[in-house]
């Protein structure tokens, strides 16, 4: 199926999509602050994959992944994709995520990936996953 938007129209739509400080990310940060987990840094460019949250002292990197952009199996079916562009785009995003995970893990980091829909459904259980990773890394909050 061909894209119904012009190149400029598609660019305008894509530019309007947030990549930082999304509602799910803000909700997770609020839940973590409420639980006493502060001291994280946001979107660190010096870390593989630019984690949404990076607890530097405890080496815990947290990513809030959108189900479409990061290819959640329940929300992304490459066989039903509207074009080769989207199949390639999402496949590239998934591969990039795996490379970032491997780079961080090999550098001694714990990686926590949370789907945006999980946060919308139960932010506290998502925060608990991050807190578990922090505790395992020596955090005493």
UniProtKB/TrEMBL annotation:
It comes from the Bacteria. SUPFAM superfamilies: Restriction endonuclease-like. GO terms for molecular function: endonuclease activity. The keyword rRNA processing does not apply. Signal peptide: none annotated. Keywords: DNA damage, DNA repair, Endonuclease, Hydrolase, Nuclease. Coiled coil: none annotated. The keyword Hydrolase applies. Belongs to the Vsr family. This is Very short patch repair endonuclease. It comes from Gordonia tangerina. The lineage of its organism: Bacteria, Bacillati, Actinomycetota, Actinomycetes, Mycobacteriales.
